[in-house]
Write a structure and sequence with these properties.
The chain is of the alpha/beta class. 47% of the residues lie in helices and 17% in strands. The chain has two domains: 138 residues, D-Maltodextrin-Binding Protein, domain 2; 141 residues, 3-Layer(aba) Sandwich (D-Maltodextrin-Binding Protein, domain 2).
């Protein structure tokens, strides 16, 4: 009887251990990072951070590419996953803030629990390296204002985030220029380099690979790391005029998020691991080589940093309408 009692107590104890320590043992298996775009430079940057965070947690963290519907498909898939901390959403600005502003999503940024800010990739306005018509951005804008509709530029496709940001910058100088759409960004970059276009949107990845082909006129960010990514080119922080573009609004960026019902103790584990991963000097250097700058904002700054973006995006949308109306008058 004594042996039976001892065995029973031991069995009950073993059964109870996982229940009692489940929170403390988190995570115990793979965590998925739901990524809203297809494979490419941005996904490589997210995988770099995910690998560093996985090292902190002691589990694997694959990046699951889930493109579609301007990034909103990934959000819907992530929101339908269990709120157990084993699914992280790679919250890019387009599906997180822009699509709700456009009425294409029924969530807002505060429908999620933030972990840590992830990374940013800045936009820049540049010309061909051989284009010496203007000494700087403001000189180009003065010429544009005097010759409405003459200058031609590209942001790849039209009405995307880079187009919105550039339209807002041009509006501030009363510069009316023609946005030329391309089905493939490489075609636009080729025409820019060959002088078919007067200026264009240049992303960090393109500059990292082909920087000698371009003269960067303006980095569309006030963050020092953004200017550094473009070889310390002039940025909006150097202008005398306020473009109405600040913080994260004129950038491509992402903030990692989890379901709003995720247990707080698991959220805290993920936050600490991500904070440590973004602070790792080796990981930061590798991210910079890809053209990304890790952001240092922690979860408690989420509202004050992300909140103002929606209003600025609306103003950028108004700038697109302004550009179209002004061109129609010519």
């Amino acid at each position: 009887m004594k042996h039976l009692t001892t065995t029973l107590v031991t069995a009950l104890a073993l059964t109870a251990v996982p229940l009692a320590t489940r929170a403390e043992d988190f995570p115990r298996r793979t965590i998925e990072l739901i990524f809203p775009w297809g494979p490419g430079n941005a996904m490589a940057g997210s995988q770099l951070l995910a690998d560093a965070m996985a090292d902190e947690l002691g589990v694997s963290m694959p990046v699951i590419s889930t493109p579609g519907a301007a990034g909103t498909k990934a959000f819907m898939i992530a929101m339908n996953k269990p709120a157990d901390g084993y699914t992280i959403l790679d919250g890019y600005v387009a599906p997180l803030v822009l699509q709700p502003v456009l009425g294409n999503a029924d969530w807002t940024y505060d429908d999620f629990i933030p972990l840590h800010a992830a990374s940013s990739n800045a936009f820049a306005i540049g010309t061909s390296a051989e284009n010496d018509r203007w000494a700087d951005f403001e000189e180009m804008m003065a010429y544009c204002a005097e010759h409405p509709g003459e200058l031609r530029y590209t942001t790849g496709s039209r009405n995307n985030l880079p187009h919105m940001v550039i339209a807002k910058a041009l509006q501030s100088y009363d510069c009316v220029a023609q946005n030329i759409p391309y089905t493939a960004n490489a075609e636009g970059m080729s025409d820019l380099k060959n002088g078919v276009l007067d200026f264009g949107f240049i992303n960090v990845g393109e500059f990292q690979q082909n920087g000698d082909n371009y003269a960067i006129k303006l980095v569309l960010s006030e963050l020092p790391a953004s200017a550094e990514a473009f070889g310390n080119a002039p940025s909006i922080a150097d202008l005398d005029i306020d473009l109405g573009l600040s913080g994260l609004a004129p950038l491509g960026w992402n903030w990692w998020l989890v379901h709003k019902d995720t247990p707080p103790e698991r959220v805290e584990v993920l936050r600490q691991a991500m904070k440590a991963a973004t602070a790792n000097p080796e990981v930061r250097a590798k991210a910079a080589a890809l053209g990304f700058a890790f952001l240092d904002w922690d979860w408690d700054q989420y509202d004050e940093v992300v909140g103002p973006v929606a209003g600025q995006l609306k103003a950028m949308g108004d700038a697109l309408k302004w550009e179209e109306e002004e061109l129609s008058k010519l």
